[in-house]
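Worked example (supplementary).
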Amino acid sequence: MNRVRFMAETHNNESKHHHRDYGIQTPGTKGVPGTKRYAMAIDLRKCIGCMSCVVACKAEFGTPLGVWRTWVKTADKGAYPNTTRVFMPRLCNHCDYPICVRNCPTQATYKHEDGFVLQRYNRCIGCRTCIVACPYNARHLVPEKRTDGNLPTLVVDKCTFCIHRVKKGLLPSCVQTCVGGARIFGDMNDPESEIAKLLAKEKVTVLKPSLGTEPAVFYIGGDFEIMSENKSYSNRTTQLKEEFNTFKRQHPGDAFGDIVEGESTMYWVKKNMVDFVAEIPHKASGVGKIIKKLIFG
Amino acid sequence: MDESVIISNAFHHAPWGTPITIYFWLVGASAGSFVISSFGWVFGIKRYKPLALTASVMAIFLLMIVPVLLIWDLGQPWRFFYLMLPGYWHSTAPMAWGSILILSYPVSMMVYSVFVIKGNVTWARITGILAIVLALSTHWYTGVVMELNPGRFINHTALAPLLFLTGAFISGIGGLLLVLWVQNFFRAAEKRISWTLMSEMAQYMMYGIVFDIFLLWLEFMQTLYGNEGEYMGHDVVLMNLFSFPYIWLEAVIGLFIPLLLLVSPIKHNKVVILAASAMVAFGVYGMRIWWVMGGQFIQTFY
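After joint prediction of all chains, the assembly is encoded as:
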């Protein structure tokens, strides 16, 4: 008996105590009859690395520079002349048991009954606990500067599975725009849906299955070389390593804990603190403006 | 078959930085200092009564710095009170537990200090017991806030709260010994804290160091013999990028040299006690660095 079936059966027997339904999250609904469970399957055999999903997502949400709701990881495999290039689109896994939800201190992030893991900006204090909790690096703090000044800043953001589109019968923007048809989205609990049929037919895998988060993003044709967290660090090209270091140097951010490889760790520990202190007057002026607005209107 | 090489990926920041490492250190030193304060009024060891107020005030002072670090570290500083608001407070979140503890711990210490000043033995004991439970809980929380993230391999260990509490005990004593030494310059001769007592505290610190080394060894073994992620943390983070705070600052400067000093024949020497105290207090901060910033490092590349 697989895990999904086990959970479905225990649910049917009303043995809800087996579920880790702590926090403001609905219990896991994968394979539970009578419920919806939106999920995404990504057929890596069809992905051509055109990045149109990334662009569509950026356009849909006005996602600022330097942060991503979805991105495509790329790797080169083999040695000349036997080489291939593999791609792996990444996004929030909309886990059935999301660690970010149970760890959010202000109930800003929650799990929708249809499986979406969502963020409430008006509750988010920007403590970044959910980013620490997420094993998939799927969350980010929105930078202070963004093109549309009406959109929230300095709160945590993430992929929403385009719930605003899905609820109107549309597909998520990254799925809609995928030229290779690699991204398949739908209700995996509906046996007639494309995704349910695909999940029943194909061999699929998820990221970090041992953590018990029950991700709702499934990969078909996944390659260990690109899915491994450790290889993502150790097998980077020198150019990518330098790009990342440059990015860290140029985006000190809001007291982040970045360390640049090849430079003194203690220098960066000190630099983080200096950046933090330097930002206090700016943040204080922001607080002052809000208090003034509250009092004087 | 040649291994693949990653040629493009998104960049991610490590979300928590130096302010959080300092906050963890401050809460620990505060809790350690308060434990010593409670020796006289809670546990009835009379020779510790003269230093109870100094230790308690030091614990309160260290904790007063914490809100500055925590509130200004938020993306939305003016929303800090959401952490305590009914309807917002999230019972399953370790940070929500911490917000209550950080609020109640200094208040309980202040009430305890008032009764110490008044010399009210009964109420000092009652409030002292409450404050010591809160002191330990507050620092326990700093251990679990990162521990309860299964994706953070270095942090996801049940040893975390013990590592933090032991570090708190020794850094608190170390810091307090330095404060008492300075304070003695400004006190009348008959009110000075004796070196015999300070030497005794240094020996308590020594026992704490031995236990901390034991815990560090357990953690070392777990990462060395651990799964892929734990080993990566051991190899890349602890033994390489964060080797200065891990090996040199924490283990060598913070634990082994002070241990050698405090078991040597010159262990009662003033200079030796003060040097060991300073090294321990400083060295424990090394643990806070690798724990917070090292624990986040690998995953930023995923």
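Two points are worth noting when inspecting this output. Residues 10-18 of chain A have pLDDT under 50 and may be disordered. Chain A touches chain B through 88 residues (CB under 8 Å).
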